[in-house]
Specification:
Elements: H1 2-25, H2 30-42, H3 46-59, H4 67-80, H5 85-95, H6 102-112, H7 120-127, H8 135-152, H9 162-187, H10 192-208, H11 212-227, H12 233-246, E1 257-260, E2 263-266, H13 275-281, H14 287-292
Amino acid sequence: MRKFFLSVIFTLAACLVASAQESHSSIPPYDKLQSSAKDALKRQEYKAAYNTYCLMDSAYGITSADYESMMYFMWLTHSYNPGSEDEKSLMFRAVNSKWFDMAQLELEAANYGVDTLDYWDELVAIVTPRGYQDTLYQNRLLAMTRADQALRNSIGNGSQNEDSLKAALHEVEVRNEAELKQLIAERGFPTLTRVGSLCNDYATYIAQHSEPEFLHWFLEQAKPAADNGLFDLSWIAYMTDRDLIHQGKPQLYGTQLTTIDGITAFDPIEEIEHLDERRASIGLGPIADYMKLYGMTELKTHPVK
């Protein structure tokens, strides 16, 4: 009889585990949820957007790496769950990322009254050392990135003007590279303390879509800055991989994917068996988590050229 009951208990436990696994596997990939939330915002269906961001956060975790989603989620939490532990958790998550400077914190206070919360002084203490960043530099980087993405996001959507869009995008890339060089010469390298995390991302984005020679130079300037905590370390991985691919070598950190003949896969990777070790050494999560962002369940690489 005891064996019978144990058998029933183990069977029920197995069913519960299988049910939980099936439930989690039914959650759409991060990028799909991100698109759904944005679409809901465009339709002004704010509660639906809030619920989608809640699902994203519980399933995958929204971090400052996805700045746009983080800010929308925080804004909606201020509206739908003010004074909650969720709001407090989001605020501390935000201010502990280096893109959040005093100007941004003051904006949160003006718009959402966070200066009345009992942990306001803690937030100020975290952000104060960053001071106020170079807004002119930030605005230029923002404008350059928007000009690039407006064209890049239009390519591959079945437009009859595909060739002209690609030509226009190349012109923007050339202009952006020239302007970034000028900004660096006049205002210094775009470190976290100078432009904040978001615009550090923008500068790196522009560099990654520039000529290989400039990307290599930018990477070499970014490395010592990262060693001193002044540049996002994860971007070193992305730029290193792209720089290696430009040189015809396999990537180290598994950050670069391409779509060839309708097949999306990673560019060749050096010693895949040690990939997660290298990723961890530079602050990146396991490759399996990165693959989820693209809805991938199997690590596939394109053949070495």
